[in-house]
Design the sequence.
């Protein structure tokens, strides 16, 4: 997803595997003017990079990129991807095939059959008991016309276009597949078996033996597994268990494997439903046929997972490592001295479509350990033994960080047998040999001896006891041992411990080779993230070509393996019908004519506001100050610059005093700076004095190289402790100076000033721009829009996730202008997606705020719920909707006065992409045009959903937002069969109302603001979310102690 807006540098992104939820480390100190570099990203999915930071207010560039979750944040940069000037096409005479007319006809027939006439709709919706039912009883199969509402019609608005989609059509012949769960038991002694849970390489080998044994016993059957616990077959097995022997050590291990099941995957029933989508008693359950889809995904992944040269990450991502070509399918991430690479792979998932099964395939990227001779890797890193005196230095901290990455790494070791034969054996690195750790943990007599000056020693600094096979022996250095036994003088590199802490075995790097394809879950540094995103950023043409060629080969779609299951896939990507919606006009005021509206027509999703005033100023900012916090005097921002900023805001129509207070002035009143350490020591007193003096806003100028910790500390003090609006900017951007002339770059400064100014006006309660034509549902002033989201901890050290709370955030509009979106954030149990009981009180507070501004409660509430997976859709209706109903009943009283509610799921973390087929209907980056909507071809006619690409991805491949209607008491009753057009139009035009941007954003503002308020809540608990890899839970404090926002700010957009 490429969002371009003014704002602080990106939050880094983690990802819980492909298409999953999750959030990585936060961006590092990018400031609030939008020029900040995106910060640390997680080691999760980098499917494709949506585009560089944008949102420039007075030009086509500007604000910082705010990455979507699941990916790293990034800074702007030039794409090196080929194909920006191309549209993907097939070789041969038919370069772009038409979309399937049979599917088109079936879609139309299904919608016409299930659709209502306008009269029918009015009649049905008139009988709906608004507020009478809290929700659907969990597990109930009762039909409710509002829950998972039937698609009223396909949209018709906009210019029709033909697009490629990253899907292949699939045909499955058998009526049934059978799925078993495998359980493993290991023999102890002669007969007894105990339950075991083998992992990693051992589990893979055991599963391979199971498949080989089954193929021998059942030569006519086809088998597939994900190499964990599932087994899919074409017919039921006659045996409930079998034995396999693993000869992977000095004595063979015997395992009994039980096949529990089978559960039946009803492929025939699925195919029948896809061709009709007839309603039935189970129509309230979503998604449909999960057991069958799960079995098919196991089959689609089995071919690639069976190959030793392909690494599987999670349930749906595979990475080939048979040929590793730097710059083509791998890239180095060693810019900060860590042994990491980026690799390109493929995501795959079976999906239901109308009239057919589909295979969704997308390019994905992941982070892996470097592979090859360990000597080469250590040499490239210049990774030498570490003295104890260096442990507390920056060198020691970096060494520890790198050393962790070698733990549990699979390696091949050159070993010499007693008969002199040299062989290679597979082992795993326990850790780099660390003296203090081994001495504490060693069990037995004759412990190894270490040179007293070294913490991470080399081969000459370690001695171990070597038996002489005659009852005696002596201590020998690792260096002398390998010189004697192998005739090899090993160099001075840290030693690898391939044993255990209590029984270490030391190996020099010269005889160790690190195996390829070992994924890493780690926080990336800012530089690593930048390199990762540069590698991952590719045009739609490139990605479509990769999927159609390398991707098919990786999945084995053409090697005949799927035919054993009666499965065939079409050779070419699908083409689907899309529409480009009309662009709304943006309204400001003309600075030359008081209160005269000025309309601007966006181009490719963006516009500039030169010669414009904002539509409404917030509360006057009469008392405000600034402070320089960095240790480089040449970057001190003086009073003249800050006053120029105030004058600039006044020119935009923002009411602000032009006499700020320099809170860090010297005795002569000149601006001075304090470094971070000094400020951290005085921050509480600083804010206390500012609050007592009545300051409304505080502007902090920091160094670009500052860390996120300072940002979080300032925000926590301002937002929670003292109730003062704060803004953090980068000194070199707030006052950009030409290095040659020493003059201020006024054009650069104007863009940065504008980015900050828009945020200040929102914090003060103002509105920056509006739509020239009001949205039909909104203009009456009776509809409140709500967005809420839950974010989860990711990319933390092992065992930390359960101790870190999830963050819930909810925002809501307060009037029909849609300029202000105050919100609330709170903590709830870790990894819990459904909102807890506090939702009732939070929702009441939003209703009260609406009443305060409108003197009545809303008649309609449209909710955009961000980020839940398809498997959780029903839970939203069963768990969250009753809380919302309860809040409405408490405030609105009589059932007749209960607001009508529609709930729409908005999802960014999915793998659907669309590519242009026409050179004349693409953006400069090769993407589909902003405003493109797709509601057929890759959707299910039964359900009401659509994909919308509202934004312009300046780089990479645009990620559309996917919207699914879970509950509708508003649109069909109001608009009848035109409801689809109205919902698509409203959602699209909302994307132009993101207050701190002069661009359309990729997800509608209610969902977007909810995401941002969650991020701010993370900043309020830096002891939890900014913890280092080595911090313990005790170091960070207990969970469940959320910091509430100060009463003076709670009804403002403090989080923006």
Sequence:
């Amino acid at each position: 997803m490429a969002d371009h807006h003014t704002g602080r540098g990106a939050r880094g992104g983690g990802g819980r595997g492909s298409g999953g939820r999750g959030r990585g480390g936060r961006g590092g100190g990018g400031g609030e003017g939008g020029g900040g570099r995106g910060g640390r990203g997680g080691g999760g999915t980098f499917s494709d990079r949506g585009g560089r930071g944008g949102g420039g207010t007075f030009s086509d560039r500007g604000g910082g990129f705010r990455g979507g979750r699941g990916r790293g944040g990034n800074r702007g940069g030039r794409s090196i991807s080929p194909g920006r000037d191309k549209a993907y096409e097939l070789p041969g005479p038919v370069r772009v095939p038409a979309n399937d007319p049979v599917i088109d006809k079936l879609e139309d027939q299904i919608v016409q059959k299930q659709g209502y006439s306008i009269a029918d709709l009015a009649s049905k919706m008139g009988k709906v008991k608004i507020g009478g039912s809290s929700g659907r009883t969990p597990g109930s199969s009762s039909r409710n016309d509002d829950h998972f509402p039937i698609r009223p019609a396909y949209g018709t608005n906009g210019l029709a276009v033909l697009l490629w989609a990253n899907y292949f059509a699939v045909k499955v012949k058998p009526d049934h597949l059978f799925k078993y769960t495998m359980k493993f038991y290991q023999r102890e002694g002669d007969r007894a078996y105990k339950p075991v849970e083998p992992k990693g390489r051992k589990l893979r080998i055991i599963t391979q033996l199971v498949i080989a044994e089954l193929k021998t016993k059942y030569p006519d059957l086809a088998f597939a597994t994900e190499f964990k616990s599932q087994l899919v077959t074409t017919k039921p097995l006659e045996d409930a268990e079998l034995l396999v022997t693993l000869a992977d050590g000095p004595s063979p291990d015997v395992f009994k494997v039980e096949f529990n099941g089978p559960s039946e995957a009803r492929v025939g029933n699925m195919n029948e439903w896809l061709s009709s989508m007839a309603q039935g008693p189970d129509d309230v359950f979503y998604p449909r046929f999960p057991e069958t889809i799960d079995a098919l995904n196991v089959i689609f992944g089995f071919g690639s997972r069976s190959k030793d040269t392909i690494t599987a990450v999670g349930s749906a991502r595979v990475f080939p490592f048979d040929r590793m070509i730097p710059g083509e399918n791998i890239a180095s991430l060693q810019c900060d001295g860590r042994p990491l690479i980026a690799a390109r792979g493929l995501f795959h998932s079976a999906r239901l479509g109308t009239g057919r099964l589909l295979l969704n395939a997308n390019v994905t990227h992941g982070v892996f350990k470097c592979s090859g001779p360990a000597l080469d890797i250590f040499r490239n890193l210049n990774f030498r033994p570490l003295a104890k005196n260096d442990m507390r230095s920056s060198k020691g901290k970096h060494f520890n960080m790198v050393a962790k990455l070698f733990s549990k790494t699979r390696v091949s070791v050159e070993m010499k047998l007693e008969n002199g034969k040299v062989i290679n054996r597979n082992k795993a690195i326990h850790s780099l040999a660390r003296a203090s750790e081994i001495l504490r943990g060693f069990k037995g007599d004759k412990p190894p001896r270490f040179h007293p000056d070294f913490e991470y020693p080399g081969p000459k600094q370690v001695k171990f006891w070597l038996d002489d096979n005659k009852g005696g022996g002596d201590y020998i250095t690792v260096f002398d041992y390998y010189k004697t036994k192998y005739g090899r003088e090993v160099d001075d590199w840290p030693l690898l411990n391939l044993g255990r802490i209590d029984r270490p075995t030391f190996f020099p790097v010269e005889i160790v080779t690190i195996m390829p394809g070992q994924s890493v879950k780690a926080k990336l540094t800012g530089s690593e993230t930048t390199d990762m995103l540069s590698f991952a950023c590719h045009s739609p043409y490139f990605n479509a070509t990769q999927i159609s060629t390398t991707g098919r080969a990786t999945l084995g779609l053409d090697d005949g393996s799927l035919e054993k299951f009666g499965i065939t896939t079409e050779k070419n990507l699908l083409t689907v019908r899309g529409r480009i919606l009309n662009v709304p006009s943006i309204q400001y005021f003309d600075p030359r004519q008081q209160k005269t509206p000025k309309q601007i027509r966006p181009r490719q999703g963006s516009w500039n506001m030169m010669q414009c005033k904002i539509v409404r100023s917030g509360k006057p900012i009469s008392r405000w100050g600034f402070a320089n916090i960095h240790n480089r005097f040449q970057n001190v921002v003086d009073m003249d610059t800050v006053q120029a900023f105030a004058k600039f805001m006044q020119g935009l129509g923002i009411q602000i005093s032009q006499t700020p207070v320099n809170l860090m002035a010297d005795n002569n009143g000149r601006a001075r700076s304090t470094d971070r350490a000094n400020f951290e020591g005085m921050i509480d007193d600083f804010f206390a004095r500012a609050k007592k003096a009545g300051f409304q806003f505080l502007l902090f100028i920091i160094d670009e190289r500052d860390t996120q910790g300072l940002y979080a500390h300032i925000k926590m003090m301002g937002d929670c402790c003292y109730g003062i609006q704060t803004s953090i900017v980068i000194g070199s951007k707030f006052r950009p100076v030409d290095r040659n002339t020493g003059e201020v770059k006024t054009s650069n400064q104007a863009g940065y000033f504008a980015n900050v100014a828009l945020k200040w006006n929102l914090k003060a309660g103002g509105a920056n721009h509006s739509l020239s034509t009001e949205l039909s549902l909104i203009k009456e002033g009776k509809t409140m829009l709500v967005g809420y989201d839950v974010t989860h901890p990711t990319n933390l050290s092992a065992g930390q996730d359960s101790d870190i709370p999830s963050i819930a955030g909810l925002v809501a509009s307060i009037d029909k202008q849609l300029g202000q979106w105050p919100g609330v954030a709170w903590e709830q149990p870790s990894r819990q997606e459904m909102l807890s009981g506090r939702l009732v009180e939070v929702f009441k507070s939003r209703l009260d705020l609406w009443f305060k501004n409108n003197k009545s409660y809303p008649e309609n509430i449209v909710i955009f719920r961000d980020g839940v997976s398809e498997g959780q859709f029903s839970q939203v209706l069963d768990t969250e909707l009753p809380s919302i109903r309860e809040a409405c009943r408490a405030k609105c009283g009589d059932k007749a006065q209960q607001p009508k509610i529609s709930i729409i799921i908005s999802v960014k973390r999915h793998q659907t992409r669309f590519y242009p087929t026409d050179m004349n209907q693409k953006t400069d980056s090769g993407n589909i045009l902003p405003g493109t909507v797709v509601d057929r071809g890759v959707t299910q006619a039964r359900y009401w959903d659509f994909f919308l690409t509202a934004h312009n991805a300046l780089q990479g491949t645009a990620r559309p937002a996917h919207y699914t209607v879970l509950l509708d008491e508003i649109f069909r009753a109001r608009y009848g069969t035109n409801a689809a057009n109205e919902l698509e139009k409203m959602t699209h035009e909302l994307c132009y109302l993101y207050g701190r941007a002069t661009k359309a954003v990729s997800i509608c503002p209610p969902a977007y603001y909810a995401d941002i308020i969650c991020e701010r809540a993370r900043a309020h608990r830096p002891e939890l979310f900014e913890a280092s890899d080595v911090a313990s839970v005790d170091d960070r404090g207990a969970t469940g102690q959320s910091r509430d926002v100060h009463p003076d700010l709670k009804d403002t957009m403090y989080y923006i």
